[in-house]
Amino acid sequence: MRTAATACCTLNFCITMKRILISVSFFVGIIIIWAALTGDLAFLGLDEPLWSPYVMPPPSRVALYLWDNTVNGKLPLAMLVTLRRLLIGYAIGLVLGVPLGMLTARFRWAQDTLGHLALSFQALPSVCWVPLACIWFGQTEAALLFVVIMGTMWSVLLSTENGIRNVPPIYARAARTMGSPPFHTLIFVTLPASAPFIVSGMKQGWAFAWRSLMAAEIYVSVISGFGIGQYLHYGRELQRMDQVIGVMFIIILVGLLADKLIFSPVERFLHRRWGTGRD
Questions:
Q1: Residue 21 neighbours by CB distance under 10 Å
Q2: What secondary structure, in 3-state letters, does the chain show?
Q3: First-residue to last-residue Cα distance in the chain
Q4: Who has greater pLDDT, 157 or 6?
Q5: Whether pLDDT at 145 is above 70
Q6: What gap in Å lies between CA 243 and CA 237, rounded to an integer?
Q7: How far is residue 217's CA from residue 148's CA, in Å, rounded to a whole number?
Q8: What are the Cα distances from residue 51, in Å, to 55, 157, 189?
Q9: CA 118/CA 122 separation, integer angstroms
């Protein structure tokens, strides 16, 4: 038994390393192609860029920008400002979205009103909330938080409603047979069983919130702190494409790490826990 378990672990490790190697090789290949097209491989004779560095800078200039502004503390400080806004707005969106999703799943009148409203707002790009936020709240932190909340809440609401409706009815019937009151059944049976769907909605809500905040920071300048989105905006204004691409790289990296290190492991665990058909 121990030998079989060891062999299984070794096989899983090999499969994981193979997947990592394929992913790393793919992205390294993209960077090499980028360097070749922008004249960043002079030692190989590829020193003639197809575009001006002001249009498409080579990887070395982007890496130099990231290094300099990380060492001097500008990018880490901007990341802290942005993540603080994101976490506050995202938390408020969760606190509002989960109970409202439970309400729409429980009552028909809520589904026909609030549920349809959520579907309508879910289809609305989050950047559309930016002009309203600027008019209602001005150039303040509240405007940024409002956009993040609007980007998060509706996705979480719909996923919570969908998750509760997809819980097998036998769970609730079994709980009621054992004397569980309705509210106890909802909180301790239905809600945990719907957790895989809720976490999927939380992951989607995080992605919407992240994109919403970037759009809001581009258009809303808050004196209390410059975020990553503002650096993207100023890079465009100053025609610093190395800054634009460097900030875009940070935005992509944060989104990827949040998905791979937080949401995906929790989602896989919950799907295995409740046997909802995912590996």
A1: 10
A2: CHHHHHHHHHHHHHHHHHHHHHHHHHHHHHHHHHHHHCCCEHHHCECCCCCCCCCCCCHHHHHHHHHHHHHCCHHHHHHHHHHHHHHHHHHHHHHHHHHHHHHHHHCHHHHHHHHHHHHHHHCCCHHHHHHHHHHHHCCCHHHHHHHHHHHHHHHHHHHHHHHHHCCCHHHHHHHHHCCCCHHHHHHHHHHHHCHHHHHHHHHHHHHHHHHHHHHHHHHCCCCCCCCHHHHHHHHHHCCCHHHHHHHHHHHHHHHHHHHHHHHHHHHHHHHHHHCCCCC
A3: 23
A4: 157
A5: yes
A6: 11
A7: 11
A8: 6, 46, 60
A9: 6
Alpha carbon distance 277, 254 (integer Å): 28
Task: Enumerate the β-bridge partners of residue 41.
Answer: 46
Residue 126: exposure state from Cβ atoms within 10 A (0-12, 13-18, ≥19): buried
Task: Please name the amino acid found at residue 119.
Answer: L
CB 98, CB 160: distance < 8 Å: yes
Q: What is the Cα 157 distance to its own chain's centre?
A: 16
Give the residue with greater pLDDT, 105 vs 51.
105
Q: How far apart are the C-alpha atoms of 3 and 247, rounded to whole Å?
A: 48
pLDDT(207) > 80: yes
Cα–Cα distance measured from residue 268 to residue 182, given in angstroms and rounded to the nearest whole number: 29
CA-based nearest residue to 149, from 124, 123, 129, 132? 129
Contacts of 191 (CB under 8 A, 6+ apart): 102, 164, 198
Q: What's the rounded mean pLDDT across residues 252-264?
A: 86
- pLDDT category of residue 247 using cuts at 50, 70 and 90: very high
Contact 146, 159 (CB under 8 A): no
pLDDT over 60 (residue 5) = no
What are 126's two structure tokens? Answer: 């989050």
